[in-house]
Amino acid sequence: MCATNSFLKSLGVEIYASSHRRWPDVAKAFAVSMTLAAGMTVNVVAERFGILSNQLELCVNLVSGRFE
Questions:
Q1: pLDDT, mean of residues 37-61
Q2: Contact 63, 47 (CB under 8 A)
Q3: DSSP the chain
Q4: Closest CA to 46 of 36, 32, 26
Q5: Residues 31-43: pLDDT tens digits?
Q6: Phi, psi of 3, deg, nearest 5
Q7: Nearest CA to 28 among 44, 1, 51, 5?
Q8: What is the pLDDT of residue 2?
């Protein structure tokens, strides 16, 4: 988890002692853009970011216009 936290902090994500995270829009956009790369899946990207895949899938769907 420490490596994940370091990765997230490098993106500007604020991580609190309670494990709550505050995500800047740039970090969210980066995560969504990674799912569009060839060979990447929502599950792989979500694991790298330490989030649930359904949370990332919701963001991907909102950005793509498949879900409003």
A1: 92
A2: no
A3: -HHHHHHHHHTT-EE-TTS-EE--HHHHHHHHHHHTSTT--HHHHHHHHTS-HHHHHHHHHHHHTS--
A4: 32
A5: 999 998 999 999 9
A6: -65, -40
A7: 51
A8: 74
Structure tokens of 8?
A: 């997230």
**8 A C-beta contact, residue 46 and residue 52:** yes
Q: pTM (2 decimals)? A: 0.80
CB 13 within 8 A of CB 24: yes
Q: pLDDT band for 1, please (50, 70, 90 cuts).
A: low
How is residue 16 written in tokens?
């609190």
Which value, to the nearest 10 degrees, does the dihedral of the CA atoms of residues 43, 46, 53, 11 take? -150
d(CA 57, CA 18): 24
Quick one: how far is CA 42 from the chain centroid? Answer: 9
